[in-house]
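Standup, Tuesday
Yesterday: got the pipeline producing C-alpha cells again.
Today: sanity-check two examples.
Blockers: none.

Example 1:
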Amino acid sequence: MAQKRVVLEEGILKSNDLLAQKVREDLRRRRILVTNLLSSPGAGKTALLEALAQNLGPQMAVIVGDVQTRRDAERLERHGIQAVQIVTGGTCHLEARMVLRALEELQGTPRYLFIENVGNLVCPAGFDLGEQQRWVLLSTPEGDDKPLKYPEAFLTSHVLVITKMDLVPHVPFDVDQAEAYARSLNPRLRIFHTSVITGEGLEALLAHLEHTYRSLFPDA
C-alpha cells in the first residue's frame, strides 16, 4: 500500500497564529507593549534586559524561555522586576500557547513586556508570539555574516541590536558589513549598537521603546 504523507506544518502555524492574535489583542487592550527577543545562545539577551530593567524598573516584565532551568528568570528578578519562566523541556522555540499560559501568571499591568525567546536564530523566527515588535540580537563575537546564514530572523524583525560593542577592537567583526548584510534582507530594520559594559546605546534603545509605546498608545 502506498504511504500517504501528511503535512502538519501549515496546521501548526495556523493554530499558533490564531493564539498569537489573541495574545496581541488582549495585551493591546491592556496597553502593554510586547517585544519578542531573538538571538543565538550567548548573544546577550538577558544582560541587555538586566540593563533595561535598571532604567525601567517595575514598568517592565519578562517572559523567559529556556530549554532547561530558570537561571535567567532569577537573574532578572534580582532587579526587582517580574520574570515568568517557561521551560520548554527540549523545544527549540516558544509558541503562542506557551505565552498565553505564562500571561496567567503575570501580575498587574507593566508598560513593557519582553519575551526572551529560546537561544536559537532558526526555529523562533517562524512563530508569532503576539508581539508588537521583534528584536534580533547579534553579538560581535558571533561574526558579521550571521544575517546571511540565518535570514529569516532578520527578515521578520523590526530592530537589530548589535551587542557587545566593547569587544569590537578584539574580534574580527565588521560593523558596517554586518549592517549591510542585514539591510540587504530588510531595509527597514532599525539598528542600535549597544554594550552593557560601557552603557553604549542603552539611552537610544530606551528612547525607541518610549517612542514605540507612544505610537501604539497615543492616548496613554
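Example 2:
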Amino acid sequence: MKDSRLIMGMPVTIEIVGTDKADANRKISSTLEDAFNYFTYVDETFSTFKKDSEIMNINRGEIKLENASPDMREIFKLAEQTKNETNGYFYIVNRDGVYDPSGIVKGWAINNTAKLIKNAGFSNYYVDAGGDIEVGGHNSDGDKWSIGIRNPLNQDGNVKIVHLSDCGIATSGTYVRGQHIYNPHDMREEFSDIVSLSVIGPNIYEADRFATAAFAMGRKGIRFIENSNVTGKPRKFEGYMIDSKGIATMTSGFSDFVKKTANVSEETSTGDS
C-alpha cells in the first residue's frame, strides 16, 4: 500500500509491503496514518516557515533551549555532534543568524518514521521525503528497491539507478532550490563547481547529514565521504558527485549499488579528486 501527501513543504511518499494475509489493509492503513501524523508533528515543531513552531519560538527568544522539548534538545545535540564530525561544515545557524535545523531534521524524521513502521511489524517499506529516502527489505516484486539519482543538468532523467535495501540515500545540490546550502566557514561563498552530491548510508539520518556537510565542502566533499569509512570494517558510506560540466566522481564502493547507468561522463575515484 502506498500513499503520498504534501507535508513540510514537500511531497512525502510512504509505501508498506505486507508479507502475508495477516497484514490486512486496515493495519497497513493505520500505520501509514501514524507515519504521516508524525511528519506533521515534525513540521509543526521544526518548521522555520510556521511562526508558531517551537524552533521559531526559540529564535525569538520566547523559549530557552534548556526548556525546549526533548526532541528539540536531541536535534541540537545531534547537530553539534555532526558539526564536530564534519570539521565545522555542518552548522544550523544560517546566513541570517537564526537557527535552521532543517539540514538534519528531515533525515532524522524519515529515519524515525522507518522505525515506526518496523515497530508496527513491517520490514518492507519505502519512505521518501523530498527525494531523501530510507528503504527496508524489498519491494512488492520481492526485489531490492530501485532508486534513481536525478540528472541535475537534465532533470527529466536519471544518471544512475541504485539497488538498495535496509539503508538510506540523500542528495544535496543547488539545481532545484538554488543556493540554499552554505559553507559555514565562508557564508558568502556560492557553489558553482559541483551541482549535486548523493550519499548512501546505513540509514537516511546518517546519509542526509553527511550529504549536506560534504556538499558544503565543495569538490573535497567526495573525499570526505570516502574517508568516512573505517579501514578494516565494512564500508558504511558511498558517494556520487556531479560537477557543473556533468563529470561524475564516485567513491570506491559506489558501483556495487548501481543497477543501471544512464548517459553521463564518469571517472571512478577513491575520493582524491
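Quick observation on example 2: The radius of gyration is 19 Å. The helical segments are 25-46, 54-59, 70-85, 102-119, 204-216, 221-227.
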